[in-house]
Amino acid sequence: AILDVLRAHFNRRQDLAGRRLLITAGPTHEDLDPVRYLGNRSTGKMGIALAEAAAARGATVDLILGPTHLSTSAPGVTVIPVRTAREMHESALDRWPMATDGILCAAVADYRPESVAPEKIKKTEGDFALTLIRNPDIAADLGRDKRPDQFLVGFALETENGIENARGKLERKGLDLIVLNSPRVPGAAFGHDTNQIQLIDRNKVTSFELKAKREVADDILDRLPPNRTP
Amino acid sequence: AILDVLRAHFNRRQDLAGRRLLITAGPTHEDLDPVRYLGNRSTGKMGIALAEAAAARGATVDLILGPTHLSTSAPGVTVIPVRTAREMHESALDRWPMATDGILCAAVADYRPESVAPEKIKKTEGDFALTLIRNPDIAADLGRDKRPDQFLVGFALETENGIENARGKLERKGLDLIVLNSPRVPGAAFGHDTNQIQLIDRNKVTSFELKAKREVADDILDRLPPNRTP
Question: Smallest Cα–Cα separation from A65: which of A49, A86, A46, A88?
């Protein structure tokens, strides 16, 4: 009986053995000039927690990490540092064919300045208009290239109409699961050590309590499809 | 003789006793919506080094610190956390009358988005124009209010025509000294533990070697006017 418990525990912990996860995390920074950039409040904590939890459960992880002061040296995790949405897009598309599963946790800038000034922009009197152009859509491009044996999880950060928007995103981009979180919930999302999520697929919405990001990571990983028995 | 050396050493170390320094440090973040912001590459290291060096030399320091993961708990330093240029401006103007000296090390955003969207801006097809408006000028406003017994140091980060632009800034804003650094020098300015500066006043330009930011801080503090003998 004790052996069964130990075995169950061990199996749970190593249930991702043989899997190779592609995880994106952190913000992206879109430069205006050598000094200024357009950024967002992501710190990478949730994605790093996902990478560490997945590695602890036996997976090999490629962690594509935007600019943040946080990182990880967990065994089994390869950190690929990037700065911009385009760098993250290129890196993710390169590695997606080798992955069994993808979890797109990064807060990727939808827009970037039309051009990057080579010198620091001098201030002038009065206002100025900054033209922003669309960045490539990593989730949509990975969803388009997804093989039937691959599983793809996206994140949605919504301040209003969360579930409706998340389900639209799921279908439009060919994702298997969406993690919805809101910066309006105290203690959740950017910068916090805790998060409160809803997991949304085509059939159902599962709502979780506020908990440590490492535990949230395990809730998400529990939804990856089980290893096929050989 | 030994006593003289010790006394000289002690005096050097406590040469800022009785002074109250106002130091600004770090970047500012100018929000577009609850998630996105316009930022810059400053980490606050140089300003924190200045605050710690000044406190070690006997000064009381008000450190107005923009959003960064770094901080200080050095005795004698009061940290006032702010996020935006307007918050930093308000905080600096409030405290300036009590200060004997000001060192404006923060990389303050010259511009902010015209309005902050209350909800996360949804992406749409195509480009969009972001209208940016001027932020208040902290250096100019402190320079305008400067009493004859106050000493005001500004920072300039220039990628081209550094000395010429710095001297223009010195005169236009009523500063006593400008610290010029460049993100183009390897190992200098944002994010590095070292910096290479030039100190510029009305009469001369002094160029220093690349060195630790704490040593750079002492070079800058050495230029504050000596305490008047009572």
Answer: A88
Nearest CB neighbour to A35, from listed B40, B111, B127: B40
To test the contact with chain B by mutation, choose from A29, A35, A83 the residue with the greatest count of B C-beta atoms within 10 A, namely A35
Domains of chain B: which residue ranges?
15-113+132-221
What residues of B are in contact with residue A111 (Cβ under 8 Å)? 123, 127-128
**Secondary structure string (H, E, C) spanning B36-94:** EEEEECCCCHHHHHHHHHHHHCCCEEEEEECCCCCCCCCCCEEEEECCCHHHHHHHHHH
Chain A: residue whose CA lies nearest to B161: A119
Can you name the CATH fold of A14-110+130-221?
A: Rossmann fold (3.40.50)
Just list the catalytic residues of B. Answer: 40
User: Where does residue A190 fall: left (phi above 0), alpha (psi -120 to 50 degrees), or beta otherwise?
Assistant: beta
State yes or no: pLDDT of A62 exceeds 80.
yes
At residue B126, the pLDDT reads 79
- B15-113+132-221: CATH homologous superfamily? CoaB-like (3.40.50.10300)
The per-residue pLDDT for range B47-65, each reduced to its tens digit, is 999 999 999 999 999 999 9
Interface list for chain A against chain B, based on CB atoms closer than 8 Å: 29, 32, 34-41, 69, 107, 109-111, 114, 119-120, 123, 125-134, 157-160, 183-184, 190
Distance in angstroms (rounded) separating the CA atoms of residues B36 and A197: 21
Interface probe, candidates B40, B71, B135, B169, chain A, greatest A C-beta count within 10 A: B40
Q: How many C-beta atoms surround the C-beta of residue B118 within 10 A? A: 9
pLDDT digits (tens, 9 = 90+) for A184-210: 778 877 888 999 999 999 999 999 999
